[in-house]
Amino acid sequence: MSASGHIALLPGDGIGPEIVGAARQVLDAVGDFTYEEHLVGGASIDENGIALTDEVLEKCRKADAVLLGAVGGPKWDTTDPDKPRPEQGLLGLRKGLGLFANLRPVRPSPALVDSSPLKPEIIQGTDILVVRELTGGIYFGEKKREADSALDTCVYTRDEIERIARVGFESAGRRDGRVTSVDKANVLETSRLWREVVTEIHADYPDIALDHMLVDNAAMQLIAGPSRFDVIVTENMFGDILSDAAAMLTGSLGMLPSASLGESGPGVFEPVHGSAPDIAGTGTANPLATILSVAMLLRDGLDAEDEAARVEAAVDEALNSGLRTADLAGGDEERDVVDTDEMTRTVIAAL
Fold first, then answer.
1. Helix (H, G, I), strand (E, B) or coil at 195
2. How many CB atoms are closer than 10 A to CB 136?
């Protein structure tokens, strides 16, 4: 029996419609799905004056999963706090759907080891899951601006730390059984509470190994020896920075998927990269991060492990064939550089 469900599609801006279109073809190749497509980000600002309408949020709540492309672009850039920004659509989705955990797997495809800016012997064996807290911390604290000063408040509660810690430990239980909790406990009071709570919750997971690491050291270790990590669990801002740094281990942001999950209801699945307005409409966008987000949607959103594994294997097979989109070719003229459509067809053929 194939996977099934109702998917809310939010193509968004820039290359979003192209990569979501590619991902929908892959979904159709592995299951029986129904879809509704809605506006978000800049596209919604142009149509509705805001980045996410209540109607679209309600449609997403009723879906089994949400697949998002990308939002943003220079057209909507502004520093005016009274004007809408595309990113408000993402924040609205996370808040409205109760999404507090962002999962970003970083597993360089064997075929792309040479594409990483790091030496192959450093990359070899890297398989990391970054678990980032999404709803607390400095991004959501009180903000204040005066003529010559500004303030951003970082706040975390015990409950917020406990629930993300459990996601980290439970994820590690399905992997290699190791959690690295990243904080700045030598300086920040929120990090001291973070370390205390994570240590307390660890008592419920005696089979999982836990170590604590300061964020600056974690950044260095991601570059010096990324294979030492299994699951990294950390707060909002640290996770934002470290997950993007870890993404480059693969050689391209065009390869990284993500999932944002809550305690119940649909999750949001999206590629890590942005909307790339400079290549929008050229047909050259790399669809693989969105296709790998489909794998996460199947696994974490629909409990369809077999179909998820098939999609991941098909992506590896497509890359093993030697095909590359422009972002993965790295100027290598001997590579067979293909467009969005051909890479998508190759993955579907591998399925």
1. helix
2. 20
Encode the chain (351 residues) as per-residue pLDDT tens digits: 578 999 999 999 999 999 999 999 999 999 999 999 999 999 999 999 999 999 999 999 999 999 999 999 999 998 887 899 999 999 899 989 999 999 999 988 888 887 788 888 888 889 999 999 999 999 889 999 999 999 999 999 999 999 999 999 999 999 999 999 999 999 999 999 999 999 999 999 999 999 999 999 999 999 999 999 999 999 999 999 999 888 878 777 778 999 999 998 999 999 988 899 999 999 999 999 999 999 999 999 999 999 999 999 999 999 999 999 988 886 655 668 999 999 999 999 999
Which one of the listed residues 244, 316, 339, 341 is annotated catalytic?
Answer: 244
How far out from the chain centre does Cα 154 lie?
23
150 in a domain, yes or no?
A: yes
Question: Could you list the residue range(s) of the whole structural domain that residue 329 is in?
Answer: 1-102+255-351
Considering 240, 316, 339, 341, which one is annotated as catalytic? 240
Q: Does 185 share its domain with 269? A: no
Q: Which one is catalytic: 28, 216, 303, 306? A: 216
**Cα–Cα distance for residue pair 142/262, rounded to 1 Å:** 24
Q: What angle do CA 160, 161, 163 make, to 5 degrees?
A: 70
- Our answer to whether residue 119 is catalytic in this structure is no
Given 250, 270, 300, which residue is the final one in a domain?
250
Q: Respond yes or no: is residue 244 known to be catalytic.
A: yes
The answer to whether residues 32 and 134 belong to one domain is: no
If one counts the domains in the chain, the total is 2
DSSP for 60-73, please give it: HHHSSEEEEEE---
Whether residue 308 lies inside any domain: the answer is yes
Domain boundary among 207, 235, 250: 250
Given 13, 156, 183, 184, the catalytic residue: 184
Q: Is 184 a catalytic site residue?
A: yes
User: Residue 40 falls within a domain, yes or no?
Assistant: yes
Domain membership flag for residue 347: yes
- Which one from 35, 95, 127, 139 is the annotated catalytic residue? 139
Distance between CA atoms of residues 85 and 187, nearest Å: 33
If asked whether residues 52 and 4 sit together in one domain, one would say yes
